[in-house]
Each structure stands twice: as structure tokens, then as C-alpha cells.
Amino acid sequence: MKNEDQQPVILVTNDDGLFAPGIKYLVDVAKQFGTVVVVAPDSPQSAKGHAITIEDPVRLNQVEAFPGIEAYECSGTPVDCVKLAKHLIFKGRKQPDLCLSGVNHGSNASINIIYSGTMSAAMEASLEGIDSIGFSLLDFKFDADFESSRPFVTKIIAETIENGLGETKLINVNIPKLKTEEIKGIKVCRQANAKWEEKFHEATDPRGKKYYWLTGEFVNLDDGKDTDIWALDQGFISIVPSMHDLTKYDAIAPLKNFENINI
Amino acid sequence: MKNEDQQPVILVTNDDGLFAPGIKYLVDVAKQFGTVVVVAPDSPQSAKGHAITIEDPVRLNQVEAFPGIEAYECSGTPVDCVKLAKHLIFKGRKQPDLCLSGVNHGSNASINIIYSGTMSAAMEASLEGIDSIGFSLLDFKFDADFESSRPFVTKIIAETIENGLGETKLINVNIPKLKTEEIKGIKVCRQANAKWEEKFHEATDPRGKKYYWLTGEFVNLDDGKDTDIWALDQGFISIVPSMHDLTKYDAIAPLKNFENINI
Predict the structure, then answer these.
(1) Is residue B243 part of a domain?
(2) What per-residue confidence (pLDDT) applies to B74?
(3) Angle at A230 between CA A227 and CA A236, to 5 degrees
(4) Cross-chain residue pair B54–A48, CB shorter than 8 Å
(5) For A109, A155, B190, B210, which has the most beta carbons within 10 A of its beta carbon?
(6) Residue A191 at interface with chain B, using a CB cutoff of 8 Å
């Protein structure tokens, strides 16, 4: 991914919208590495997964969100933002060399990746052949401390620009809620096998009709020491190389019995 | 998955909503195998991926959509439907033995799986340990011909109830748009490497503001004869065993250089 003759072009996006401190921080880190273009949702889009907008039109407006940085807000999902960036904003221009998504306010480790708008935006960019990094901090708060991760986030981006991500094109980076000096380093891991145990908060609206609000508890089912959850629990930043091929290859042969079906 | 002493409980869902002919057909096929409970979105939720609703409440109402069948409509996404089914409708009851999602009006082969509400609903059920099948017909039309696939869909469900899905717990079944006698059989395959080449239809609204509408063309980048796209092109029904672990295992070792980062 080296560009001897020109600066890298870096697409920055997220799922929390342009006013989230996480993206402001990421733009600030990214701009030292090249030309940053920001395309982010105009409202929070957490947990939108790989949703795209096909039943409605989407809007895209240029905004002045970060001093000196070209930025746009989009009425669609995080994946819509990346598609609009590629096909409208970068049309006829040099396409991005790198996509950075986040920094998300809250974990996208383990099974969270499939629900995450942050990671889906990064995955969509990786599908276009762009090296892509999703960053998430294990702190849901609006005023979460992103600065503590700056030396690591900076070096992860530098390493990616220097050497590229190779075959994977997508990494899921999760950062423990720790001070800089407490972060033990970086572990490259697999996604832990975990799930959400949902509960629905049941209540009654002012008109007397029931409604339900999703809540739940993250349950780790995996005691492996090579997982992202383990690394984070130990105080490391976790990096999971990720992909969009959902084929379970080792199940193809055992299911060949379906091919014997005759009608 | 055999239940000697009682009928299987079958959860049926989709992403096109309760009024789609595809789900009506699937309920009709499923009811011969056990007790069917339907939970589907109250409006079309195509391309919602693995989105869940966390910023808003969701509604769930029992409806009389299919004669003699317990059915509910949900204001949320396809994944919300499955979560509500498990945690509210089946609370204190026997949990489903099988989840059937679809039949989707349109392909969910290859890369479509990551955008698909149909497949995400089935994946969510598989995460709960339930054998799950997503069915899709390669015809977008409202009045698509589902009946031609009936002998195959019936036997795929029968085989799954008889032998289970083993390790994978999730299969992605796509059906070519062919008459029964033209369907050549079933192939168990991997997901083809393909992508969407998007275009945005640009237009101006009645107030003079621009909007964009996503459109695009499916591009197969894979000439393998072991893929779902190949099988469908040849006139077979494709079955891809699928999973939710997005770790790209063979990229873990090559990326260990990230662990050398020191600050």
C-alpha cells in the first residue's frame, strides 16, 4: 500500500454519527498520515449490522464538521456511507487507500462483529479491496477516554500503511478501557465464541399499549487463550483478522447427504 | 433433532413481512412437519443484514395471518423477530427445534448473505443452537412461482428434521427460477466470491434537493465449480453451510507483526 509519489487517501467513517467523540479522535489521529475524507451517518446507527437502504432514497450533504477536513453526512446506514463514498464522492478521483471506522463507543469484540455498524462499514470497504480497520473502545460512555489509546492506534495505522493487511484486508481492533501505561500491548487473535443472553424490558406506553426494549448480557462461552475476549480481559488490545466469506467449509462434506435427495 | 414423543416446533420468519407470498408458501410446507409459530416483520425489511433495534422500543402483536397457525407481527428487524420469539413467545414453552426463514423473493446466494435479513434471522436462531434454514428463490417478483420448488423444499426440511445439520446449524438454500422438472437436483457448495457493483440513481425531489437511490449489478468474480452461483447457473438448488465466526484464521499468523508494536 505504499505510495511513494503521493499521500495516502484515508476514508473515515463510523456508526455513531459525526458528533461522536470517537470519530473526532480518529480523524485527528488519521490526518497525520494523509488526506482524510469523512463520510458518516447523520444520526446514530449502532447495531445496524450490514444493513443497506434499498426501499428509500438516501441523502448526502457536505458539512464542516472538522477544521480543514472534507466531510459528509449521510442519511443511511454505515454501509451506505461507504458505498456512497466510493461511487459518488470518490468518483473520478483516487480511491481511498485505507478505511478507518470508529472509534466505536463500546466493544465490537467476539459475536458483536455481526451486529456492528462500525465493523460492517469497514467490511464493506474491504470488499472493495481497501485495507480497512474497525476500532472500538470498551466504554459506551459519550465522554469515554479515547486519548489513552492514541500511541497504539497511531502505530496500528502506521503499520497498516507500511505493510498492508495482506489477504485479510479487514481487522477488528478492540481497545480495553485502560490508561496508556496499563495497556499491555497487542494480541492478534481469533473471535471468541460468545453470545448475548437477551432480556426484553417490557413496559406500557402512554396510550396503554405494551412495548419491548432489547437489553441483555454478554456471555463468553470460550475459555481459549487465543481469543479477543481473553486478550482484552488481560489488558491487551485485540486484533482479529476478519472476512466476509461465511461458508463453513468443514461442514460441506458432512452435508453431502442433501445431494442424494430425489423427487 | 428427533422427537419421538412430540412433534417438532418450527419457528417461521422472513424479511419481506407477513403478507409476502414466500412466507405463506413456507408456512404451508412447514405445517406438515410439526407445530408452526410465525414471527415476522410488520413491514418489508429486505437488506437489513444483522441489524437489531436498540435505540427504540419494538412492538409485537398476535395476528391471524394463516388459518390455524399462531402468528405474530413485530415492528423490528428480522433478527429482532427471532430474539422476541425466543425470549417472549417461547418463554416457559418448548423452544423451537427448527427455524425456517423465507422463502425470500430474490437471491441470497454468495455475498448477498451479509446483506440479507432472511439469512440474518436464520443465523440468529442458529446462534441459539437451533437448526436453521434460510430459503430464497431467484425471483424478485411478488407473484414468483414458489410451488415449483415444493418437492425439494419439503425434502430438505424432512432431511434436516431427520438428521439435523450437525456442526453448522445454518444452511443457506437458494432455488433457481425453474419449473420442478427443470431443477436438476441439489448441490452442497461454498459461497462464491462475488460483489455488487453499485450505481446510485441520482434525482431531485419536489423541493429541489438531490437524493440518491441505491442500485447495482451483481458481479461474480469466481469461476469455481464448487460455488453456489455455479450450481444455480447449472439449474441446481444450492445449499451453503454457513457460520457466524468471521475470523480469517489463516491471516492470524501473517499479522503477528502487529504484536511487535511498542510505544
Answers:
(1) yes
(2) 95
(3) 100
(4) no
(5) A109
(6) yes
Q: Could you read off the pLDDT of B91-137 as tens digits, one per residue? A: 999 999 999 999 999 999 999 999 999 999 999 999 999 999 999 99
Q: What is the pLDDT of residues B187-241, one digit of tens each?
A: 999 999 999 988 889 999 999 999 999 988 999 999 999 999 999 999 999 999 9
pTM: 0.92
B5: pLDDT strictly greater than 70:
no
Distance, C-alpha A210 to centroid of its chain: 34
Phi first, then psi, for residue A220 (nearest 5°) are: -85, 120
Would A257 be classed as within a structural domain?
no
Domain extent at residue A15: 9-192+224-244
Task: Give the pLDDT confidence score for residue B2 in this predicted structure.
Answer: 47
The residue to which cell 410446507 is assigned: B29
H or E segment and range at residue A257: none
What CATH number is associated with residue B125? Answer: 3.40.1210.10
When CB atoms are compared, the residue of A83, A244, A246 closest to B243 is A246
* Nearest-angstrom CA–CA distance, A232 and A218: 14
Q: Do B213 and A57 touch (CB under 8 A)?
A: yes
Report yes or no: B127 at the A interface, CB cutoff 8 Å: yes
Q: Is B257 on the interface with A (CB under 8 A)?
A: yes
CB B113 within 8 A of CB B172: yes
Position B205 in a domain: no
Mean local confidence (pLDDT), B35-47: 92
Per-residue pLDDT, B107 = 96
Report the residue of A258, A260, A263 to disrupt the B interface, i.e. the one with the largest count of B CBs within 10 Å: A258
A221/B contact by beta carbon, under 8 A: no
Q: Is residue B32 part of a domain?
A: yes
Tell me how many residue pairs between chain A and chain B have CB atoms under 8 A apart: 252
A196/A216 Cα distance (integer angstroms)? 6
CA–centroid distance for A225 within its chain: 23
Those residues of chain A that have pLDDT short of 50 are 1-4
ipTM for the complex shown: 0.89
Q: How far apart are the first and last CA of chain A?
A: 53
For A52, the 3-state DSSP assignment is coil
Q: Which triple of cell numbers denotes residue A209? A: 399499549
